Amino acid sequence: MRILVQKFGGTSVAGLDRMQMVMGKVRNALNRGYKVIVVLSAMAGETNRLLEMASKWSDSPNRAELDSLVVTGEQVSISLFSMLLNDNGIKARSLLAYQIPITTNDDYGNARILHINGDRLRVLLAEYDVLVVAGFQGQTEDGRITTLGRGGSDTSAVALAAALRPDAECEIYTDVDGVYTTDPNLYGKARKLPKVAYEEMLEMASMGAKVLQIRSVEFAKKYNVPVHVRSTFSDDPGTLVTQEDSSMESVLVSGIAYDKDQARITLRKVFDRPGIAAALFGPLADAGVVVDMIIQNTSREGHTDITFTIPQKDLKETIKLMEQIQGELGATEIAYDSDVVKVSVIGVGMRNHAGVASKAFAALKNEGINILMISTSEIKITCLLEEKYGELAVRVLHDAFRLDTHDYEG
Amino acid sequence: MRILVQKFGGTSVAGLDRMQMVMGKVRNALNRGYKVIVVLSAMAGETNRLLEMASKWSDSPNRAELDSLVVTGEQVSISLFSMLLNDNGIKARSLLAYQIPITTNDDYGNARILHINGDRLRVLLAEYDVLVVAGFQGQTEDGRITTLGRGGSDTSAVALAAALRPDAECEIYTDVDGVYTTDPNLYGKARKLPKVAYEEMLEMASMGAKVLQIRSVEFAKKYNVPVHVRSTFSDDPGTLVTQEDSSMESVLVSGIAYDKDQARITLRKVFDRPGIAAALFGPLADAGVVVDMIIQNTSREGHTDITFTIPQKDLKETIKLMEQIQGELGATEIAYDSDVVKVSVIGVGMRNHAGVASKAFAALKNEGINILMISTSEIKITCLLEEKYGELAVRVLHDAFRLDTHDYEG
User: Fold this and answer.
1) Which strands form A371-377's sheet, in the order they lie side by side?
2) B54 → closest Cβ in A50, A56, A83
3) Does residue A244 sit within a domain?
4) Which of A55, B116, B208, B211 reaches 20 to 30 Å from B397, CA-CA?
5) A166: buried, middle or exposed (CB in 10 Å: 19+, 13-18, 0-12)?
6) Which domain range does residue A61 map to?
7) In chain A, which residues have their Cβ closer than 8 Å to the Cβ of B137?
C-alpha cells in the first residue's frame, strides 16, 4: 500500500470552490495509485472567530475547554470535505484525532504528539480510499481534546506520515509554491529551491520564512520524513524538505532569511560576576520571553555591558522585568531599540567551509551597512542591523552569493 | 450522591448573559447539595446554520458526515459554558458523547441510545461538581458520531438521568414554564398543570403541545424517570411529568390539544376486498409518510370510501403516490383538503369512565361545530374539524370540562 499524506491549510478549504480544487489534488493522487490521507485545517478565519468568542466569555479561558472549543473548526472542514468526496464517488470518511487516536501529552494549547495508531489507519485505508483527518488536534491518554499550537496541522500531517513509514509520503500544500532563497516579496530575484535540508528549513522558518510550522520540521527531521512543500493553486513540483545529502554539502549558502520582529535591549555597566546571567535571563525565561541573540562585552573595571534581542511584542514586559532587577544587577542604564532587523545567511555546507562569514561581512561593508550584533551557528550567520538597511542587506547578500542563478558552492 | 440533570435549550445558551442565567440555576442546585449534570443544546440558530452550510456542499449529504458536522454546535456551547463555570470557581468540565460514552445505534441523524456508562459519570462526579454534557449526540459502537434527531437534547438529559437511577432527578428548562391544559396563546384561560402522566404528555406532545421531544417522554416512561419541565427565565416550579398515580386516575381530562398541521385525503369507491388497506398504506409507509386517523365507511355494492389524515408537508407526495395506485384500488376520485384541524381531549382517567366523549360531542354541537372525523384511544378523543372552527373548539371544550379552575373529575 502506497500512502500519500496531503495537508491543506485554511485558505485551501475556505469555500466550496476551493475544496473542489483540493479534491482535484486528491483525485490526482488516487489516479497515481495512492491511498490518500488528507489533513485539513479550519476554514480561514474560523479559529480566530472561535478564539474571539472565548475571549468574550473569559479573560483567561480554561485551557482544556479552549482546546475543546477551537477544534470544532477542523471538524467542520473534514465533515464538509468528506461529504464532497462521497458525492463524487470517492470512498472517504472523516477522522477526528480521538477516532485514530492521535495521542498527545496534556499541555493544552501546545500539546506534543506521543503516539499515533498506524495499525488502525492501515485497517481503515483497506476499507476507504481517502481518510480525511482533522489537523491541529489530539487527545490525552485519558481522552481529553488537545491542540498542537498554531499551524499544528503541518505537524499532524508529518506525524501521520511518520506513523505510516516506510509506506507514506507527505505533501504540505500552502499559498506559496515552495521554499525560496529569500522572501520573493522582498527581492524579486529570489529563486525557488528544489530541495532544502531540515536544518536549513528550521533556520529559515524560525527566521520568518514562514512556510512550514517549525515543529513539523523538527518532527520530519526526527523521523526522517521527506516533506514536499507545494501550492494548492498550481501543479509546480515545489520544494522537497529532506535529510542533508552529499549534494547539499557542496552548497554553501541556500538562502537569506529576514526578520524584523526584533527588539534590542542593552544593560550598561552590569556587575561582572558569576550568577549575573542567571539573574538576568532567569526571570525572562519564567515570563516566557524567548531571548535570541546575546552579546556580553569584555569587562572593564568589574563592569560589563550586556545586549540581547527579543520579539517586539515582549518589549514592554521585558523592560518592566529589567527595571525590577536593575539594582541587583548594578546596571546604570537600560537602553532599548526596536528599529532593528535580523538578516541571516543559511546553508548546511557552511559547516565545512570557511570564508562565508567574511564574504557576507564584506558585502555589507561595501554598501556601508553597519552591523549591530553578530551571532553564528554551524549553518547560519546572523547579523542584527538597523531596520532601514534590512531589505538592502537581503538583496546585497543574495547577490553576493549569486543565489538568483544557482546554488552557491564557493 | 444526589444528582440533578438540568437540560437547557438553544435560547438559554444563545449568549453570555443567557449562560449566566443558566449558571444561576446550576449554582442554586449546588447550594441545595446536588452534583449537577448540565445538558446543553447548540446556541439558537447554530444547528440550522450548519445544516444550511451542508446543503451548499451537497444535495444529499453523507449522513454520518452530516452528524459529525452538526454536533460541533453543542461542542461550542459546552466548552464556553465550562469556561464560565471555571472562571466562577465552580469545578466543572465539558463532556462529549464519546467521552462518556453515550452509545447509540448507527441510524445517523436519528440514532437510538443503547447504553450510557453511568459508572464513568459517577467517577467524574466524584472529581467535578458539574459535568457539562453535549446534548443531541452519541457515538456508535465503533466510534462514529451520531445525532438523536431534532430536539434530541431532551432525550440526552432523560437518558443520563436514567443511567444514574435511583440517584438522579431530571429538569428540562424551556421557554415556557410548564405544561398547560391547552396552548395559552390559543386560550388565555389555559391553566398550568402541576403534574401530568407520561401517556398524557405523549399525546399532548404529538398533538402539537411541543414542550418536550416525544422520544424523551418515551424514554422517561420506559425507565420511569420523573421529568420536571421548568422555565429558564423564572423560578416557578413548572410541571412534573411522571408515572400515572391514583390521584391522576380521578382526573378525567387533563388538557385539550390542537394541531393544524393536518391534511385529509379521501379515496372514493375503492374496491372493498382483502388486501386493499395494505395496497394503500404500504407505499405511504415506505415513503415515510405518517398516517394518523383512518376511517373506512361501510361498503356499498362492493365499494367503499377511505379517508385518512397526514402531515401537510407530505400532501404533495401522498397525492402522487395515490395517483400511481388509483387504478389498482379502483378509486373513482382522489379528494384532498388541508383546511382541517385536529382537536383532542386528553386524560388518563378517561380509561375508567364513560361519558367524556358524549360530553365533548355535545359541547361542539351546541356551538354548531361539525365533526369531520372521530378517532378515540384509551386516553384520548380526537376530532377532525374544519380549520375555521379549531380555536373555538379548543375554548368550548376547555370550558366544558372547566379546565380553567381545577382538574375535571366528572
Assistant:
1) A294-296, A303-310, A255-271, A333-346, A380-386, A371-377
2) A83
3) no
4) B211
5) exposed
6) 3-174
7) none
- Confirm whether A283 is domain-assigned: yes
How many domains is chain B partitioned into structurally?
A: 2
Confidence band for B407, pLDDT divided at 50, 70 and 90: low
Q: Is the peptide bond before A184 cis (omega within 30 degrees of 0)?
A: no
Residues A12 and A156 in one domain: yes
Distances (CA, A) of B315 to B260, B265, B291, B335, B353: 14, 9, 11, 11, 37
Quick one: what percent of chain B has pLDDT higher than 70? 97
The model's pTM is 0.85
Lowest mean pLDDT: which of A239-248, A386-395, B273-282, B349-358? B349-358
Which CATH number does the domain housing residue B62 bear?
3.40.1160.10
The interface residues of chain A toward chain B in range 119-148, judged by CB-CB distance below 8 A, are 143-145
pLDDT score recorded for residue B249: 66
Q: Which of B19, B83, B124 to mutate to test the interface with A (most CBs of A within 10 A)?
A: B83
pLDDT band at A410; cut points 50, 70, 90 = low
Distance of CA B162 to the CA centre of its chain: 18
Place of cell 535529510: A243
pLDDT value at A105 more than 80: yes
Judge whether A199 lies within some domain: no
A285 interfacial to chain B (CB closer than 8 Å): no
Q: Is the bond into A226 cis (omega within 30 degrees of 0)? A: no
Chain centroid to Cα A409, Å, comes to 26
ipTM of the complex as predicted: 0.83
Handedness of CA A16, A20, A21, A23 (dihedral sign): positive
Q: How far is A53 from chain B (nearest CA, A)?
A: 8
* pLDDT for res B410: 55
Q: Which of A151, A174, A197 corresponds to the end of one domain? A: A174
The last residue of one of the domains, among A140, A174, A208, is A174
**How confident is the prediction for chain B on average, in pLDDT?**
92
Residue B204 is assigned to a structural domain of this protein: no
In a shared domain, residues B166 and B277: no
Confidence of residue B207 (pLDDT cuts 50, 70, 90): low
d(C-alpha B242, C-alpha A98), whole Å: 39
